[in-house]
Amino acid sequence: MESMFPLDFDGGAALTRDTPRAMSTANVDVIRRGLLMFEAADFDGGLELLCPDAEWDVRDFLDGEVYKGRAAIRAFWEYLFEEVWESVRMVEERLVDAGDTVVAMVRFQGAGRSSGAPVDLPIAWTFEFRNGCIARVKINFDRAQALDAVGLAE
Fold it and tell me: Is 98:150 a contact under the CB 8 Å cutoff?
């Protein structure tokens, strides 16, 4: 099956000896891999990308919680895939590189487990990095607001 994730990202520049830029590009690559892992329900792989004390903020989605630490995040993911969603696709539309933060513009597509109702939501995930791992993730249904929060208003 062909990947839905293109090999390049908007605004990308060739790798140079500019360490911050190279690290930032690496962050975009991590997010691309993470989206694929999430879609595939590869919880072990996805958790390896997170800092041990990571936060997964879904206050604007479902139960309105902020999950803290890998164990709590894993339990939330398992709940989503076992109880909420029959299928999940994360269709990458754009990855915005903001240094230690990456904003992923995706279409969250799926079907509800009990209802079978289709879902197709344009959302933004904001991923904050610390020391090479993902320290905080926040879902936002207002993409402009997500960009504005990291100083990149459209």
Answer: yes
Beta bridge partners of 139: 125
Contact in structure between 152 and 96 (CB atoms under 8 Å) = yes
Partnered with residue 56 across adjacent β-strands are 67, 137
Burial of 35 (0-12, 13-18, 19+ CB in 10 A): buried
Residues in the chain: 154
Please report the domains of the chain, with CATH numbers, ordered by start residue: 19-149 (3.10.450.50)
Q: Say what the pTM is.
A: 0.81
CA geometry: angle 5, 47, 90, nearest 5 deg: 25
49 contacts 78 by C-beta, under 8 angstroms: no
- pLDDT tens-digit map of 101-123: 999 999 999 999 999 999 999 99
* Per-residue pLDDT at 149 exceeds 90: no
pLDDT per residue over 122-145, tens digit each? 999 999 999 999 999 999 999 999
* Helix/strand/coil for 108: strand
